[in-house]
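Case 272 in the screening queue. Each case pairs one protein sequence with one candidate compound; here the compound is nicotinamide-adenine-dinucleotide. For every case the pipeline is the same: read the inputs, emit a complex structure as C-alpha coordinates, and attach any notable structural observations.

Predict complex for case 272.
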Amino acid sequence: MKNLFDVSDKVIVVTGGGGVLCGAMAEYLGAAGAKTAVLDLNLAAAGKIADGIKAGGGRAIAVECNVLDKKSITAAEKVVTAELGDIDILINGAGGNKKEATTSPDMSFFDLPSEAIRFVFDLNFLGTLLPTQVFGRRMVESGEGVILNVSSMNAFRPLTKIAAYSAAKAAVSNFTQWLAVHVCQNYSKDIRVNAIAPGFFLTEQNRFLLTDETTGELTNRGRTIIEHTPMGRFGKAEDLMGTVAWLLSDAAKFVTGVVVPVDGGFCAFSGV
Ligand code: NAD
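Case 272 output:
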Protein backbone atom coordinates (compact mmCIF):
# COMPACT_ATOMS: atom_id res chain seq x y z
CA MET A 1 0.00 0.00 0.00
CA LYS A 2 1.26 3.51 -0.82
CA ASN A 3 2.63 5.36 2.21
CA LEU A 4 0.59 8.57 2.26
CA PHE A 5 3.22 10.29 4.38
CA ASP A 6 6.12 9.45 2.06
CA VAL A 7 8.65 12.27 1.51
CA SER A 8 11.53 10.11 0.31
CA ASP A 9 13.58 11.66 -2.51
CA LYS A 10 11.80 14.99 -2.12
CA VAL A 11 14.14 17.99 -2.17
CA ILE A 12 13.32 19.89 1.00
CA VAL A 13 14.73 23.27 2.02
CA VAL A 14 14.54 24.15 5.72
CA THR A 15 15.41 27.73 6.66
CA GLY A 16 16.56 28.20 10.23
CA GLY A 17 17.51 24.53 9.94
CA GLY A 18 20.43 25.00 12.33
CA GLY A 19 18.01 25.86 15.16
CA VAL A 20 16.30 23.68 17.73
CA LEU A 21 12.87 23.04 16.18
CA CYS A 22 13.77 23.24 12.50
CA GLY A 23 16.99 21.31 13.05
CA ALA A 24 14.84 18.51 14.48
CA MET A 25 12.51 18.77 11.45
CA ALA A 26 15.50 18.53 9.08
CA GLU A 27 16.79 15.48 10.95
CA TYR A 28 13.39 13.82 10.86
CA LEU A 29 12.96 14.48 7.12
CA GLY A 30 16.52 13.42 6.37
CA ALA A 31 15.91 10.14 8.19
CA ALA A 32 12.68 9.73 6.20
CA GLY A 33 14.71 9.74 2.97
CA ALA A 34 14.30 13.36 1.83
CA LYS A 35 17.17 15.25 0.23
CA THR A 36 17.47 17.95 2.82
CA ALA A 37 19.04 21.39 2.43
CA VAL A 38 19.69 22.93 5.83
CA LEU A 39 19.83 26.71 5.42
CA ASP A 40 20.88 29.01 8.25
CA LEU A 41 22.65 32.27 8.95
CA ASN A 42 24.79 30.18 11.26
CA LEU A 43 26.60 27.83 8.89
CA ALA A 44 28.27 25.89 11.70
CA ALA A 45 24.88 25.08 13.25
CA ALA A 46 23.45 24.05 9.86
CA GLY A 47 26.57 21.95 9.22
CA LYS A 48 26.09 20.04 12.46
CA ILE A 49 22.53 19.09 11.50
CA ALA A 50 23.50 18.13 7.94
CA ASP A 51 26.43 16.05 9.23
CA GLY A 52 24.08 14.23 11.62
CA ILE A 53 21.74 13.37 8.74
CA LYS A 54 24.63 12.14 6.60
CA ALA A 55 26.03 10.09 9.48
CA GLY A 56 22.66 8.31 9.61
CA GLY A 57 22.91 7.46 5.90
CA GLY A 58 20.73 10.33 4.64
CA ARG A 59 21.38 12.98 2.04
CA ALA A 60 21.83 16.57 3.24
CA ILE A 61 23.74 19.76 2.61
CA ALA A 62 24.31 22.83 4.78
CA VAL A 63 24.09 26.21 3.09
CA GLU A 64 24.71 29.63 4.60
CA CYS A 65 21.70 31.84 3.96
CA ASN A 66 20.30 35.07 5.37
CA VAL A 67 16.53 34.97 4.90
CA LEU A 68 16.45 38.78 4.98
CA ASP A 69 18.74 39.17 1.96
CA LYS A 70 17.35 38.16 -1.41
CA LYS A 71 20.82 37.88 -2.94
CA SER A 72 21.83 35.45 -0.22
CA ILE A 73 18.65 33.40 -0.72
CA THR A 74 19.12 33.34 -4.50
CA ALA A 75 22.72 32.18 -4.07
CA ALA A 76 21.52 29.43 -1.70
CA GLU A 77 18.85 28.36 -4.16
CA LYS A 78 21.51 27.90 -6.87
CA VAL A 79 23.57 25.69 -4.56
CA VAL A 80 20.55 23.59 -3.56
CA THR A 81 19.41 23.09 -7.16
CA ALA A 82 22.92 22.20 -8.36
CA GLU A 83 23.56 19.73 -5.53
CA LEU A 84 20.14 18.21 -4.84
CA GLY A 85 17.91 19.08 -7.82
CA ASP A 86 14.71 21.11 -8.15
CA ILE A 87 13.10 21.95 -4.86
CA ASP A 88 9.81 20.26 -3.92
CA ILE A 89 9.20 21.57 -0.42
CA LEU A 90 10.11 24.75 1.49
CA ILE A 91 9.91 25.05 5.26
CA ASN A 92 10.16 28.69 6.35
CA GLY A 93 11.50 28.08 9.84
CA ALA A 94 13.89 30.97 10.51
CA GLY A 95 12.32 33.29 13.04
CA GLY A 96 12.19 34.20 16.68
CA ASN A 97 11.88 36.89 19.28
CA LYS A 98 14.47 39.25 20.76
CA LYS A 99 14.92 40.37 24.36
CA GLU A 100 15.20 44.03 23.31
CA ALA A 101 11.71 43.86 21.72
CA THR A 102 10.14 42.46 24.91
CA THR A 103 8.56 44.52 27.69
CA SER A 104 9.92 43.99 31.21
CA PRO A 105 10.26 45.90 34.50
CA ASP A 106 13.25 47.67 32.86
CA MET A 107 11.63 48.25 29.47
CA SER A 108 8.13 49.72 29.12
CA PHE A 109 6.09 49.34 25.97
CA PHE A 110 6.51 53.10 25.41
CA ASP A 111 10.29 52.78 25.30
CA LEU A 112 10.62 49.68 23.10
CA PRO A 113 13.20 50.65 20.47
CA SER A 114 11.82 50.71 16.93
CA GLU A 115 14.98 48.95 15.64
CA ALA A 116 14.26 45.95 17.86
CA ILE A 117 10.59 45.89 16.84
CA ARG A 118 11.58 46.11 13.18
CA PHE A 119 14.19 43.36 13.62
CA VAL A 120 11.61 40.93 15.02
CA PHE A 121 8.97 41.84 12.48
CA ASP A 122 11.38 41.52 9.57
CA LEU A 123 12.92 38.24 10.74
CA ASN A 124 9.54 36.53 11.06
CA PHE A 125 7.50 38.10 8.28
CA LEU A 126 9.98 39.19 5.61
CA GLY A 127 12.09 36.16 6.52
CA THR A 128 9.12 34.02 5.44
CA LEU A 129 8.10 36.05 2.41
CA LEU A 130 11.51 36.51 0.75
CA PRO A 131 12.52 32.81 0.63
CA THR A 132 9.02 32.07 -0.65
CA GLN A 133 9.58 34.50 -3.54
CA VAL A 134 12.84 32.79 -4.49
CA PHE A 135 11.98 29.10 -3.94
CA GLY A 136 8.29 29.51 -4.81
CA ARG A 137 9.17 30.76 -8.30
CA ARG A 138 10.71 27.34 -8.95
CA MET A 139 7.55 25.61 -7.77
CA VAL A 140 5.44 27.75 -10.07
CA GLU A 141 7.66 26.72 -13.00
CA SER A 142 7.20 23.02 -12.24
CA GLY A 143 3.55 23.48 -11.21
CA GLU A 144 4.00 21.55 -7.95
CA GLY A 145 5.22 22.27 -4.47
CA VAL A 146 4.54 22.52 -0.78
CA ILE A 147 5.32 25.44 1.51
CA LEU A 148 5.15 25.14 5.28
CA ASN A 149 5.45 28.31 7.35
CA VAL A 150 6.17 28.39 11.06
CA SER A 151 3.71 30.62 12.85
CA SER A 152 3.02 30.53 16.58
CA MET A 153 0.35 30.25 19.22
CA ASN A 154 0.61 34.00 19.72
CA ALA A 155 -0.81 34.55 16.23
CA PHE A 156 -4.19 33.29 17.53
CA ARG A 157 -3.99 35.14 20.84
CA PRO A 158 -1.31 37.75 21.47
CA LEU A 159 0.86 36.97 24.47
CA THR A 160 1.88 39.54 27.05
CA LYS A 161 5.30 41.22 26.72
CA ILE A 162 5.98 40.29 23.08
CA ALA A 163 4.01 42.76 20.95
CA ALA A 164 6.28 42.65 17.88
CA TYR A 165 6.67 38.87 17.85
CA SER A 166 2.90 38.34 18.26
CA ALA A 167 2.10 40.77 15.45
CA ALA A 168 4.78 39.30 13.20
CA LYS A 169 3.49 35.73 13.62
CA ALA A 170 -0.08 36.94 13.04
CA ALA A 171 1.26 38.33 9.76
CA VAL A 172 2.83 34.93 8.97
CA SER A 173 -0.53 33.18 9.53
CA ASN A 174 -2.36 35.76 7.44
CA PHE A 175 0.23 35.48 4.66
CA THR A 176 -0.12 31.67 4.73
CA GLN A 177 -3.83 31.97 3.93
CA TRP A 178 -3.26 34.72 1.38
CA LEU A 179 -0.57 32.83 -0.50
CA ALA A 180 -2.50 29.54 -0.48
CA VAL A 181 -5.29 31.26 -2.40
CA HIS A 182 -2.99 33.32 -4.62
CA VAL A 183 -0.98 30.39 -5.96
CA CYS A 184 -4.08 28.29 -6.65
CA GLN A 185 -5.86 31.14 -8.43
CA ASN A 186 -2.89 32.32 -10.47
CA TYR A 187 -0.42 29.47 -10.93
CA SER A 188 -1.24 25.91 -9.97
CA LYS A 189 -3.78 23.91 -8.01
CA ASP A 190 -0.92 21.62 -6.96
CA ILE A 191 0.98 24.08 -4.82
CA ARG A 192 -0.08 23.99 -1.17
CA VAL A 193 0.74 26.51 1.55
CA ASN A 194 0.12 25.78 5.22
CA ALA A 195 1.58 26.62 8.60
CA ILE A 196 2.14 25.04 11.98
CA ALA A 197 1.65 27.08 15.13
CA PRO A 198 3.81 25.56 17.85
CA GLY A 199 2.80 26.27 21.43
CA PHE A 200 5.59 26.52 23.98
CA PHE A 201 8.82 24.72 23.32
CA LEU A 202 11.79 25.59 25.52
CA THR A 203 14.46 26.82 23.09
CA GLU A 204 17.13 29.53 22.96
CA GLN A 205 14.79 32.31 21.78
CA ASN A 206 12.43 32.03 24.78
CA ARG A 207 14.60 30.49 27.52
CA PHE A 208 15.12 33.94 29.10
CA LEU A 209 11.33 34.35 29.43
CA LEU A 210 10.45 30.89 30.68
CA THR A 211 13.32 30.01 33.00
CA ASP A 212 15.43 31.97 35.49
CA GLU A 213 18.82 32.68 33.91
CA THR A 214 20.76 31.85 37.09
CA THR A 215 18.76 29.06 38.76
CA GLY A 216 17.16 27.46 35.69
CA GLU A 217 13.84 27.31 37.64
CA LEU A 218 10.59 28.20 35.86
CA THR A 219 9.72 31.90 35.89
CA ASN A 220 6.18 32.99 36.83
CA ARG A 221 5.49 33.17 33.11
CA GLY A 222 6.82 29.65 32.58
CA ARG A 223 4.62 28.36 35.42
CA THR A 224 1.55 30.19 34.10
CA ILE A 225 2.07 28.63 30.68
CA ILE A 226 2.21 25.12 32.11
CA GLU A 227 -0.92 25.84 34.17
CA HIS A 228 -2.70 26.98 31.01
CA THR A 229 -1.59 24.03 28.93
CA PRO A 230 -4.11 21.20 29.46
CA MET A 231 -1.41 18.64 28.67
CA GLY A 232 0.68 20.16 31.47
CA ARG A 233 4.12 20.47 29.87
CA PHE A 234 6.22 22.32 27.30
CA GLY A 235 6.38 20.75 23.85
CA LYS A 236 9.32 18.65 22.69
CA ALA A 237 10.60 19.08 19.14
CA GLU A 238 9.50 15.53 18.28
CA ASP A 239 5.88 16.53 19.09
CA LEU A 240 5.85 18.57 15.85
CA MET A 241 6.90 15.80 13.48
CA GLY A 242 3.54 14.10 12.89
CA THR A 243 1.94 17.39 11.88
CA VAL A 244 4.93 18.32 9.72
CA ALA A 245 4.88 14.92 7.99
CA TRP A 246 1.13 15.24 7.37
CA LEU A 247 1.27 18.76 5.92
CA LEU A 248 4.29 18.09 3.72
CA SER A 249 3.05 14.85 2.22
CA ASP A 250 0.21 13.57 0.04
CA ALA A 251 -1.67 12.81 3.27
CA ALA A 252 -2.62 16.53 3.18
CA LYS A 253 -3.22 16.61 -0.57
CA PHE A 254 -6.49 18.61 -0.25
CA VAL A 255 -5.33 20.80 2.63
CA THR A 256 -4.14 24.33 1.95
CA GLY A 257 -4.30 27.64 3.79
CA VAL A 258 -4.51 26.19 7.30
CA VAL A 259 -2.56 27.05 10.43
CA VAL A 260 -2.41 24.01 12.72
CA PRO A 261 -1.79 24.52 16.44
CA VAL A 262 0.54 21.99 18.06
CA ASP A 263 0.25 23.27 21.59
CA GLY A 264 -0.98 20.65 24.07
CA GLY A 265 -4.37 22.37 24.09
CA PHE A 266 -3.14 25.85 25.15
CA CYS A 267 -5.20 27.63 22.50
CA ALA A 268 -8.40 25.83 23.47
CA PHE A 269 -8.21 26.68 27.18
CA SER A 270 -9.84 29.91 28.37
CA GLY A 271 -8.09 29.69 31.72
CA VAL A 272 -11.33 28.95 33.61
P1 NAD B 1 16.07 28.76 17.26
O1 NAD B 1 16.56 30.11 17.71
O2 NAD B 1 16.62 27.54 17.88
O3 NAD B 1 16.25 28.64 15.66
C1 NAD B 1 16.17 29.71 14.80
C2 NAD B 1 17.26 29.54 13.74
O4 NAD B 1 17.10 30.59 12.78
C3 NAD B 1 18.68 29.68 14.31
O5 NAD B 1 19.48 28.58 13.90
C4 NAD B 1 19.20 30.98 13.70
O6 NAD B 1 20.60 30.97 13.42
C5 NAD B 1 18.38 31.05 12.42
N1 NAD B 1 18.30 32.42 11.92
C6 NAD B 1 18.13 33.56 12.63
N2 NAD B 1 18.13 34.62 11.81
C7 NAD B 1 18.28 34.14 10.55
C8 NAD B 1 18.37 34.74 9.27
N3 NAD B 1 18.29 36.08 9.13
N4 NAD B 1 18.55 33.96 8.19
C9 NAD B 1 18.63 32.60 8.34
N5 NAD B 1 18.57 31.98 9.51
C10 NAD B 1 18.40 32.74 10.62
O7 NAD B 1 14.48 28.86 17.41
P2 NAD B 1 13.33 27.78 17.50
O8 NAD B 1 12.72 27.93 18.83
O9 NAD B 1 13.79 26.45 17.05
O10 NAD B 1 12.29 28.40 16.46
C11 NAD B 1 12.11 27.94 15.13
C12 NAD B 1 10.85 28.59 14.60
O11 NAD B 1 9.73 28.21 15.42
C13 NAD B 1 10.87 30.11 14.63
O12 NAD B 1 10.19 30.63 13.51
C14 NAD B 1 10.12 30.44 15.91
O13 NAD B 1 9.59 31.75 15.87
C15 NAD B 1 9.06 29.38 15.86
N6 NAD B 1 8.39 29.08 17.12
C16 NAD B 1 9.07 28.68 18.21
C17 NAD B 1 8.38 28.39 19.39
C18 NAD B 1 9.08 27.93 20.62
O14 NAD B 1 8.39 27.73 21.63
N7 NAD B 1 10.37 27.73 20.61
C19 NAD B 1 6.99 28.53 19.43
C20 NAD B 1 6.32 28.95 18.29
C21 NAD B 1 7.02 29.20 17.14
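Case 272 observations:
- The chain has a mean pLDDT of 96.
- The first strand starts at residue 11 and ends at 15.
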